Amino acid sequence: MADPAGEFLQPELSISGLPDRGRVLCRGFIESVTYVPASQVASFTAIVTDHDVPRSKGGFAAVAAEPPTARKPGGTGRRDRLRVVWLGRRRVPGVDPGCELRLEGMLTFRDGLPTMFNPRYEILSRQENQ
Fold first, then answer.
1. What does the alpha-carbon distance between residue 9 and residue 51 come to, in Å, rounded to a whole number?
2. In this structure, how many other beta carbons lie within 10 angstroms of the beta carbon of residue 62?
3. Distance between CA atoms of 45 and 115, rounded to whole angstroms?
4. Where are the domains of the chain?
5. 3-state class percentages of the chain: helix first, strand second, coil last, to nearest 5
6. What is the pLDDT of residues 6-28, one digit of tens each?
7. Fewer beta carbons under 10 A from the terminal one: N or C of the chain?
8. Does the domain formed by 15-57+77-125 have CATH 2.40.50.140?
9. What does the buried/exposed string (b/e) look like for 80-89 if buried means 16 or more CB atoms within 10 Å of the residue's CB?
10. What are 75-122's pLDDT values in tens digits?
11. Are 114 and 72 in contact (CB under 8 A)?
C-alpha cells in the first residue's frame, strides 16, 4: 500500500548526515542549477546544501570556486552537497537557487557526489527578489 501524500514516516536528515546509500528524506537549500542545451538528452540538475547560499547584490546565487567536498562510500571525507537530477525534464518550476526543498528518494553515488534521481520533492520556501 502506498504512503498517503504529504506524510513522511522516516526522520528528516540534513545533507551532511546522509548515509552512503538507501531511501532517505532530507531537507536543504538549492545552491545552483544546471540547464542542458536542447541538443542533449533532457535533464535538470540541482546542487543542494544544508545552508542557504549568500546572495550577491545582483540577486544571483554566489557559487564557491572550490570543488565540492564529497565522501566516497567507505571513505572518511566530509560531505556537504547533494546532487539531485530530474531525468526527462529541462526545468522544474519553483526549483531555483536559494529555495528550500524537502526531498525523498533513493540515494546513490555518482562521480564522487551523493546523488538522487527523480526524487519526490516539496518546495518549503523561496528567495524573494532583491
1. 24
2. 13
3. 10
4. 15-57+77-125
5. 0, 40, 55
6. 555 678 888 988 998 999 999 99
7. N
8. yes
9. bbbbbbbeee
10. 444 578 999 999 999 999 999 999 999 999 999 999 989 999 999 999
11. no
